């Protein structure tokens, strides 16, 4: 069911620093996540993309700064209350192979369960809508171990969708998927925005997919934000060389009108 998308920022990150032991991983990051849009975190391996995404969901405690949700600090919310606000799908999630798709999707309703309010009709409806929206309804009785990579990824996204959160964080959802399943997955993500008005924060390695599906790109390097903006503004030959260390030709995709990056060679190397 489509819904009107309010304007404004739903998440504000203010001066966020985060350490792993004695190693500083994120350095004084400030970022606004626009409501009802797809924001893609991009950059070279080890730049801090996944760490930032997990910090948004409060899986990592910052050493400095804070993450605000509707101007409310995340750390003022209980875990279940936060899980009703922000859904997260990590890289390579795991579940027992003999679990069915429907059993997996049911896990998304956990944040809504209490001793005084156990399973109800609203939970059943949310599960049915999540499976229908991700196209896995016909797989409800299939065991996870019997699914293809694309089917399994859609089942996991259905589980997150069943949480009925306004914000969905996805860490490399197309990792290890073939081209067809990458497109299938990202078209689904786009529908979450278009039809359900969800705010999506997405980590992607593929710059062309980021430019095609992202409304806002956030380029990170060495735990710092290098640039934030629309794909047409950020995906330039100079920026690709600076952020990814690659010399590239950037053209306009003749089909989608978005930037299309053609890698040529490592930055600083000769073509001869």
How would you portray this structure in words?
The protein has two domains: 9-234, 3-Layer(aba) Sandwich (Rossmann fold); 235-271, no CATH class. Helices cover 30% and strands 29% of the residues. It has a six-stranded mixed beta sheet with strand order 6-7-8-3-9-10, with helices on both faces. A four-stranded antiparallel beta sheet has the order 2-1-4-5, with helices on one face. The longest helix is centred in the last third of the chain and has 16 residues, at 179-194. The radius of gyration is 19 Å and the shape is globular. Helix 4 runs antiparallel to helix 5 (149-162) and helix 5 (149-162) runs parallel beside helix 6 (179-194). It has 272 residues and is an alpha/beta fold. The chain is built from nine helices and twelve strands. Strand 11 (246-252) and strand 12 form a beta hairpin. One of its GO terms (cellular component) is plasma membrane. It comes from Rhizobium sophoriradicis. Keywords: ATP-binding, Cell membrane, Ion transport, Iron, Iron transport, Membrane, Nucleotide-binding, Transport. It is found in: Cell membrane. Residues 11-247 form the ABC transporter domain.
Give a topology summary.
Layout: E1 9-20, E2 23-34, E3 38-42, H1 49-56, E4 64-69, E5 72-73, H2 79-83, E6 86-89, H3 101-106, H4 121-134, H5 149-162, E7 167-171, H6 179-194, E8 199-203, H7 207-213, E9 216-221, E10 224-229, H8 231-234, H9 237-244, E11 246-252, E12 259-266
Parallel strand pairs: 3-8, 3-9, 6-7, 7-8
Antiparallel strand pairs: 1-2, 1-4, 4-5, 9-10, 11-12
Helix pairs in contact: 4-5, 5-6
Domain ABC transporter: 11-247
Main location: membrane
Protein name: ABC transporter ATP-binding protein
